[in-house]
Specification:
This protein is of the alpha+beta class. It has helices spanning 17-32, 59-63, 66-69, 105-114, 136-141, 180-191, 216-220, and strands at 6-11, 39-42, 50-57, 73-81, 83-85, 94-96, 117-121, 130-131, 134-135, 151-164, 167-174, 195-205, 208-209, 214-215.
Length: 230
């Protein structure tokens, strides 16, 4: 690992994106002997989510991270129907709605198609987005809710992988800035049964594929790690 590298990392569950950056920074310091080497990442993943994270090592690489942030993203997500979460993911307060029978597969397919295309999406309170210099999730943890302006996003594709009540598994290809947690909530609302994102895995960022990524264990020993040719 050297300055100027871009690495493809498979972020594990219950790690923050910054946790991954810290591991990469420590390894870079060990290999290069540079105390204050700069390391950053493109596109934050929630702690509960797993999958592809692009990490830049060194000043020049971190300056170029925005080149990756605006690329399209591909996710595999599991939507848990018949329940809601105040964070729209499994880390929040779950409210079971006691719905015995879910919608038919045909209805699920019709509803999913309605989310394809350009649309406005309101950022969730439990997010790292800043409004007026304040991070939303910090306000949410204080029990505060503020008005958020909708962002323009694009859902290019939603593929139904499987459906067995109460879970829908989907593949989503979308623009940067899309919150899959919010999409899961909105799908549940549209189906009339509630829903939240129980599992989330990012499989692609633009042309860069999770299949070529290195797991954290590959960074903490002397195995080879995947680099981005950029």
């Amino acid at each position: 690992m050297k300055k100027g590298d871009f690495l493809l990392i498979d972020k594990p569950a219950n790690w923050t994106s910054f946790d991954v950056v810290n591991v990469v920074r420590k390894k870079a310091r060990t290999e290069q002997g540079i105390k204050n080497i700069r390391v950053g990442h493109a596109g934050t993943l929630d702690p509960f989510a797993t999958g592809l994270l692009i990490v830049g090592v060194g000043r020049e690489a971190t300056k170029r991270l925005d080149e990756f942030k605006n690329l399209s993203k591909t996710y595999e997500a599991t939507v848990r129907l018949g329940a809601t979460s105040d964070t729209d993911d499994p880390t929040g307060k779950i409210d079971e709605l006691n719905i015995e029978e879910g919608p038919a597969t045909k209805k699920v397919k019709i509803i999913l198609k309605k989310f394809i295309g350009q649309q406005e999406q309101i950022p969730p309170m439990y997010s790292a987005k800043k409004i007026g210099g304040k991070i939303l999730y910090k306000l949410a943890r204080q029990g505060k809710t503020i008005v958020r302006k909708p962002s323009l996003i694009t859902i290019n594709k939603i593929k139904l992988i499987s459906y067995r009540w109460p879970e829908i598994k989907i593949e989503v290809i979308c623009s940067a800035g899309t919150y899959i947690r919010t999409l899961a909530h909105d799908i549940g609302e549209a189906l009339g049964v509630g829903g939240y994102c129980s599992e989330l895995r990012r499989t692609k960022i633009g042309k860069y594929n999770l299949k070529n990524a290195t797991e954290i264990e590959g960074l903490t020993n002397r195995q080879k790690y995947a680099k981005v040719n950029a």
